[in-house]
Amino acid sequence: MLSLRSCYCLRPITLAHPQFKKLIFSNKPPSFKPIFQNFVSAMSSRPSAFDALMSGARAAAKKKPVNSSPKKRKALDSLDPPPKPNSSLALDSTPPVESQCVSSTSTLDNHGDPNLVKSEEAVDLGETKLRQDDGGKFGGKIGPVANKKCASSVQERTAKLKSSIPELKKKAKDFNSKQFACWNEGERVPFLFLCLGFDMISEESSRITITDIVCNMLRTVMDTTPDDLVATVYLLANKIAPAHEGLELGIGDASIIKALSEAFGRTEAQVKKQYKELGDLGLVAKASRSSQSMMRKPDALTITKVFDSFRLIAKESGKDSQEKKKNHIKSLLVAATDCEPLYLIRLLQTKLRIGLAEQTLLAALGQAAVYAEKHSTPPANVQSPLEEGAKIVKQVYSVLPVYDKLVPALLNGGVWNLSKTCNFTPGIPIGPMLAKPTKGVSEILNKFQGLEFTCEYKYDGERAQIHYMEDGSVEIYSRNAERNTGKFPDVVLTVSRIKKPSVRSFILDCELVAYDRGKQKILPFQILSTRARKNVAVSDIKVEVCVFAFDLLYLDGQPLIQKELSVRREHLYDSFIEEAGYFQFATAITTSDLEEIQKFLDASVDQSCEGLIIKTLNRDATYEPSKRSLNWLKLKKDYIDNIGDSLDLVPIAAFHGRGKRTGVYGAFLLACYDNDNEEFQSICKIGTGFSEAMLEERSASLRSKVIPEPKSYYRYGDTINPDVWFEPTEVWEVKAADLTISPVHRAGVGIVDSNKGISLRFPRLVRVRKDKTPEEATLSEQVADMYNAQKLNHQNNQDDNDED
Amino acid sequence: MLELRLVQGSLLKKVLESIKDLVNDANFDCSATGFSLQAMDSSHVALVALLLRAEGFEHYRCDRNMSMGMNLNNMSKMLKCAGNDDIITIKADDGSDTVTFMFESPTQDKISDFEMKLMDIDSEHLGIPDAEYHAIVRMPSAEFARICKDLSSIGDTVVISVTKEGVKFSTRGDIGSANVVCRQNTTVDKPEEATVIEMNEPVSLTFALRYMNSFTKATPLSNTVTISLSSDLPVVVEYKIAEMGYVRFYLAPKIEEDEDETKP
Q: 295-334 in A: which are within 8 Å (CB) of B?
């Protein structure tokens, strides 16, 4: 159902004029017009537009028992005699009034009306501003004409936008952005454009088509209002700032429910009830019909307006911040039309869920930049400029994940110069390079055949990227690019002390590990996680931390990530001085002897490490940000006897317990995350690995997350009939014996088998991962990789056996 | 150059208190005739219009029309620093991005200057025409405030109906319903205690009580309140400020709901 709102429109009318009522009631919803055609014709013989409107309303009200349509009352506005739908300004019946207004501007001042006080001739700058305001405010001299034109074009634009939106699907080369855009160059891009795009993307499943749509959207913005591109890209990515800035919208469901109820003049209970029915506040917003009329419909939303409001919301803090946030949301909501409320709310919840992955967005951005290229032509040796452009943007984003820098550089310098204009800078964290799991030393030797490699201890702590800036300031970023500087003030002191004096700036990749300096022993991860999270004072620290450094990404103004590991490591060893218990280099050996590695692995386990990381040294040994690369392999002590790595999975549903487990959940349905489709895919049921206390605790915490129906983005077999469904909130680390193909579960469906998924055998719970969000759960792709690796291994083993 | 000296400084404080909860940021417009403000709340349901005429100030100088964007909460914070008997002077230079509030104690032994940053607000200014209303009710402002407060403990909306019997305020909520009828009453000792109802046509309109309650924050400004209703217009709740002007609140009515409202 569409959202409807009525609004009063106050218009500039200054002379008493019997024919024209002073306030004009206007509104828009075009879609209801046909229903009320009868009213329109019946009422149009009335003397004044306004009378017709209101009496129409009353008539509708009186008819209530007869007419069962619940919508009738909202249709007041569609009774506007000149049937111009979707007007947010009440121009339809006012032209003569406006002309009066013009002629009467000089007689205004005696009325005592505040807005009439200042219609004198503008003289200086200050007043020029005023006069401009006047134009908009009460239709000064130029106002009415301009306004009128604008208003009619607003409706036409909406209609045109809607009719032309399917063009976005066109192949990029057939798409003419200038023809498509229905706003002027330099004019703020309407938010509706973005929302209609979202709508279209959500109905597509082909990634190629989605890339085309996004690419065409971006091109349209680039060719008309390039200033809006940053905001557009951020909204498409459903972000408001780069991760390391730690800026979050911080809006709970409660605030949104409040804002919705106030903006639409409904009670919170009504909104909550509908939320229960629809399961998505975005849909609630879309279905909300207002019972509150308005003084005036606000101007149509633009992308920048929405994005700026989002940043304002994120920056509100302190006393009454929730109230202020709510007010920002409200003013966006009241101005939203058509499908805008739906996406507005989803964006606010950062749950866009239209199946647009960030990598797709980056590819589309690269392609759009290639099409818009004015600055340079692709280098002669590039075969397929589109793919190359997408690759460049993705690569640059991996070292500089900041759209505020990347997008302007793209617009000003073009895509072919992007790698030069945008580079890795201290102060902006990059995604850490990740390692692929392996199952045994022999597998490593197989994979790294003929390559020189090194083995390092895999410390069980918290991954950290330490940035030391030229000015001496230090920032520590987590694995997820969150700023953790406040959590480790002791580390800040340590790194400044242990660096050699000649070193001016660096970025260090390392593991922060809880350490007992008295016993010179590494402590388990669980101890580290007891540290306070924010604003830690050095004097209060109870858990000591030792930095184990293993990589250097940047040194004295030079990025090192393109260099081989052997070079980077040399720089690392040359730039710092070890200090036991405070700063140590990760223990490493370089060998290709199987037995030596096995011994080293055992030694690492003895030292309370998780296992080994094995890295190529010279060939294919660059640092690949945010990639789970084959050039780094991890070998954990507990991989060897089961499937390898543990999985991080999200409980999405549960079954009531029976017998001993009555009153708690007896088993849970777990899911992995699929990045491409933005959905959770069921992988197994789990009922073991819980202590009684644990089970009770998990049941209690999940009980508050129960939702009446599975989310639309859950994939599961029809034969699974869980008793309750959950919001995706928790992440559990799970180990299993084996991976199998399953007709019931849906993990990685389509990757290894066209309509069967992968399931875990004998899963057991290891712990709850509080440091991960559901979207950071193990990806279905990874599950498929694990399955394939396992298959390979089994075959290998069989081969071995055969030979034996 | 702008310089407005208001002997009755407490008045400005009261004005701010009455509107700051409804509107966060607003433009104050100064011209040779007076000091005014017009703003809508964030949901565009209510509008506040304030006028303080030049004659009401002891000294009023406004060389050029100025529009000053202020955060009303911040302004209220500053005005709270003025004593109730203080004389308040508002000063601003042309083109300046600050405004200065000067507070003088009545004995002239203490003078404080507070400078506040102005902000750029693109407000939508609406023309508000004089209209003829179907019914105009004038009643003691404290009485009106009391009714709104009482009703809001029962329901969220108030139906205001004017008939020849009088004016009826009614609400309905989960716990029950309430009706308050005020009859015309001009036989009182003091004129401000009278309830006067002028009616051309009976009207009945529904409003969100939340807004009404917010309007009644202006009660200290005036002993009486005037409520003007027409079935096709927003209601006007006006508090006159003696010899100076008014604060007027406009509120768009609710559209009566079907019972099955929650069902889409």
A: 295-299, 324, 327-328, 330-331, 333-334
Q: Which residue on chain A is closest to B255 by alpha carbon?
A: A291
Q: How far apart are CA A117 and CA B51, in angstroms?
A: 10
- pLDDT value, residue A374: 60
Helix (H) or strand (E) holding A545: strand A545-555
Best mutation target, B4, B30, B44, to test chain A (most A CBs within 10 A): B44
Express each pLDDT in B218-244 by its tens digit.
999 999 999 999 987 899 999 999 889
Alpha-carbon distance values, B150 to B170, B182, B221 (Å): 11, 14, 21
Active site (annotated) includes residue A162: no
Contact B87, B10 (CB under 8 A): no
Q: How far is CA B152 from the centre of its chain?
A: 19
Find, in chain B, the residue whose alpha carbon is nearest to that of A60: B256
What CA–CA distance (Å, rounded) separates A158 from A161?
5
- CB neighbourhood size of A132 (10 A): 15
Choosing from B117, B152, B180, the residue where a domain stops is: B117
d(CA B203, nearest CA chain A) in Å:
12
Question: Which residues, including other chains, have CB under 8 Å from residue A539's CB and lie 6 or more apart?
Answer: none
Domain with B60, as residue range(s), is 2-117
Structural domains in chain A, CATH included, are 155-238+357-421 (1.10.3260.10), 245-291+298-349 (1.10.3260.10), 436-639 (3.30.470.30), 646-794 (2.40.50.140)
Are A438 and A416 contacting, i.e. CB atoms less than 8 angstroms apart? no
Which A positions 36-75 lie with beta carbon below 8 A of chain B? 50-51, 53-54, 57-58, 61, 64, 70, 73-74
The residue of chain B with its CA nearest to that of A272 is: B262
Does residue B128 lie in a domain region?
no
CB contact under 8 Å between B126 and A330, yes or no, is: no
Q: Smallest Cβ distance to A292: which of B128, B130, B208?
A: B208
For residue A138, what is the nearest residue in chain B, using CA coordinates?
A: B127
Contacts of B96 in chain A (CB under 8 A): none
Model confidence over A411-466: pLDDT tens digits? Answer: 888 888 888 888 888 889 998 999 988 877 777 888 888 888 899 999 988 999 99
Catalytic residue among A326, A458, A615, A772: A458
Examine residue B194 and state whether it is found in any structural domain, yes or no.
yes
CB neighbours of A295 closer than 8 A, spacing ≥ 6?
A7, A8, A9, A10, B40, B44, B45, B46, B47, B126, B234, B250, B252
Which CATH number fits the domain that encloses residue B244? 3.70.10.10
Q: Per-residue pLDDT tens for A224-269? A: 999 999 999 999 999 999 988 888 888 888 899 999 988 888 888 8
Give the pLDDT confidence score for residue A49 in this predicted structure.
Answer: 28
> Which positions ≥6 away from A89 have C-beta within 8 Å?
A9, A26, A147, A151, A154, A297
Neighbours of A137 (CB within 10 A): 23
- Let me know: does B81 contact B114? Beta carbons within 8 Å: yes
pLDDT tens-digit map of A45-94: 223 223 323 333 333 334 333 333 333 333 333 333 333 333 333 333 33
Q: What is the pLDDT of residues A18-29, one digit of tens each?
A: 333 333 333 333
Query: Can you tell me the ipTM of this complex?
Result: 0.79
Could you tell me where the beta strands, DSSP code E, fall in A376-460? 434-438, 453-458
pLDDT at B136 over 90: yes
Average pLDDT over residues A551-576: 92
